[in-house]
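Module 6 notes. Inverse folding takes a fixed backbone as the condition and produces residue identities as the prediction. Think of it as a translation problem where the source language is geometry and the target language is the twenty amino acids. Below is one complete input and output pair. Work through it position by position during the lab.
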């Protein structure tokens, strides 16, 4: 499987200018290619191929005075920009045919986009120097904050600038299965919620950190300061960055929490079972802010890929499975219960259940059956 490792970059002032030039050139080639394809579509002409676009918009364009500055950046960056457009069209057409989730048609990129990125493949001859710096063509040796070692030689590196003005290097490596963990007898069911982020089938309850709620006052103040600034002024640009940094701190804290908890659960258990929640539906209710703050989808995705990476079993239990209605002891369906009922007694066997712990145990039981192929998936 392919894995991504992201590290913070600290480019020098001159390297920031060179990266901005690379971002801009890649964006121009992408927009030019999108315009050519849209014009061909309107005129009833055949869909232009990437090879023809590469010759027209990169090779030939460099010889023209109005596009001669395309030669100031690596040609691989421009080629990868065309590949990104191909991917966008492939996802769009796949959505129309039902092969992929439905997505909108490719759109033009703006220099005011919050995120800018360029990708270097092996053909660009980028490398990691003996001193630990990232050597990029026509940019130079960029300082990297290494937090861990790469397991093998990366195939590509993507340089990203986020809305907060931070630079990151994202390396793609191919996992070889050498990180498989030794087998354990643990098995856990997870019931995700808002009052507690996660309740485990062994009775443990993980408190919800509520990162956004805790930072909401600071975020509101930063947003109010931004609203008072004159559009187009330097102070407004500074205020925009402050708002982006405030949101980035919240997102980073949430991501760190998700990573640590998911890694702990994967290491402790041979099988992990979780309910397939309808997050999009819940995000349209009055609980939308709390649902987004919890970040269930990101957490479940981490559990899934880490299970595959470390040789664990991961199962999604159908969202219509009545985990809160069944008795985890005798299996009696006691009917739906209001959300304010946090503890109830089974009418069949008399067992007293904590609502969330009982649901987690039922999820573990159902997940085991699904994993064993005893129920329809």
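Target side of the pair, the amino acids:
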């Amino acid at each position: 499987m392919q894995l991504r490792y992201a590290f913070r970059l600290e480019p020098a002032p001159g390297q920031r200018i060179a990266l901005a030039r690379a971002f801009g050139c890649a964006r121009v080639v992408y927009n030019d290619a999108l315009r050519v394809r849209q014009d061909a579509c309107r005129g009833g002409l055949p869909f232009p191929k990437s090879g023809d676009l590469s010759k027209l918009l990169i090779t030939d364009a460099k010889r023209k005075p109005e596009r001669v500055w395309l030669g100031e950046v690596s040609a691989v960056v421009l080629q990868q920009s065309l590949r990104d457009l191909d991917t966008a069209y492939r996802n769009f057409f796949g959505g129309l045919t039902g092969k992929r989730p439905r997505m909108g048609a490719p759109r033009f990129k703006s220099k005011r986009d919050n995120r800018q990125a360029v990708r270097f493949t092996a053909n660009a001859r980028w490398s990691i120097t003996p001193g630990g710096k990232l050597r990029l063509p026509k940019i130079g040796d960029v300082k990297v904050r290494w937090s861990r070692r790469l397991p093998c030689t990366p195939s590509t590196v993507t340089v990203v600038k986020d809305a907060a003005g931070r630079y990151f290097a994202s390396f793609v490596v191919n996992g070889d299965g050498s990180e498989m963990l030794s087998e354990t007898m643990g098995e856990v069911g997870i019931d995700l919620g808002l009052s507690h982020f996660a309740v485990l089938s062994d009775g443990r309850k993980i408190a919800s950190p509520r990162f956004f709620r805790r930072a909401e006052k600071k975020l509101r103040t930063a947003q109010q300061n931004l609203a008072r600034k004159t559009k187009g002024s330097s102070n407004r640009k500074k205020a925009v960055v402050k708002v982006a940094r405030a949101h980035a701190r919240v997102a980073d804290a949430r991501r760190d929490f998700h990573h640590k908890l998911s890694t702990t659960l994967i290491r402790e258990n041979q099988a992990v079972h979780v309910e397939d929640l309808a997050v999009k539906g819940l995000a349209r209710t009055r609980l939308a802010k709390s649902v987004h703050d919890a970040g269930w989808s990101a957490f479940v995705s981490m559990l899934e890929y880490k299970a595959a990476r470390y040789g664990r079993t991961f199962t999604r239990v159908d969202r219509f499975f009545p985990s809160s209605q069944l008795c985890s002891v005798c299996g009696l369906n006691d009917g739906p219960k209001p959300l304010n009922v946090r503890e109830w007694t089974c009418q069949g066997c008399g067992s007293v259940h904590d609502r969330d712990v009982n649901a987690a145990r039922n999820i573990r039981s159902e997940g085991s059956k699904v994993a064993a192929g005893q129920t329809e998936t």
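Reference fact for the lab report: The CA atoms of residues 156 and 222 lie 37 Å apart.
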